[in-house]
Amino acid sequence: MVNSLTCSLLSSLFVIVAPGQLTLATRDTQMRELIPKERPMKGKPITNRVFNFVGGATGQWQIVSMDPVVGAPLERVSSLEVLDGNLETLPNGSKWILRGVTSNERYVTRRERDLLTASQPGLGRPEATCAALIPISKSASWWELTQDERRTIFETHSHHIETGLRYLPAIARRLHHCRDLCEEFDFLTWFEYSPANSQMFEELVKGLRESEEWNYVEREIDIRLIRT
Ligand code: HEM
Description:
Blueprint: H1 2-17, E1 50-56, E2 61-70, E3 79-84, E4 96-101, H2 110-119, E5 130-138, H3 140-143, H4 147-157, H5 160-165, E6 172-177, E7 187-193, H6 198-209, E8 217-227
Antiparallel strand pairs: 1-3, 1-4, 2-3, 2-8, 5-7, 5-8, 6-7
The structure holds protoporphyrin IX containing FE (HEM).
The site of protoporphyrin IX containing FE has 22 residues, from strand 5, helix 5, strand 6, strand 7 and helix 6.
């Protein structure tokens, strides 16, 4: 509540301070510009890292199930479109949009990154016709921890990376961060796999949900899809 209020206050402030440059619009408006259009930017433009998950009546992915694991559900829709970049208008018939950005890793060690790089496949493999979109939010008590305390829970106690590595290269993944965008969730996790590996994916998800890390998950929706 406080969070969303702060975010909406911030967005109004941005509109007043820099009209035409940064507009963080509410969910029911059509304009959702995130990025300043005119201000010169250093480095890679953030638009290269923005991904929009648009739920509605049309899209490349057909939704086969939408199960709230914990916390409030999302409105049920039949399809999902995944669009990159800074969307200026919502596609026709869309009911909701979840946005996130890819970012630098927070927890991996050099050794873990090398292992991940050596075995993780890219998205879009023709045989990977199944997907899962799992939006997740963690509790205030998670965010109050320090980085080293979070790493201890995430990996030393919960073995998130060690476990995940066992499922590569069967499962392709992309992690999107949304907490600092004042979005509804903290993370949007996206996975692609072939029908032959569906059971393996269930086992992975079950294992992670039983770990200490998941004590801090306060909202999670498990959305399963197949490519049309
Ligand atoms: C395919 C196997 C998987 C691998 C290899 C994997 C690997 C990773 C890695 C390396 C990170 C940390 C990135 C960083 O350093 O910032 C991460 C974060 C995360 N993963 Fe996974 N993961 C897998 C499966 C899953 C599944 C199935 C879920 C959800 C059910 C999930 C949810 C998350 C979340 C929410 C984060 C962010 C945690 C945080 O920053 O607090 N992962 N994953």
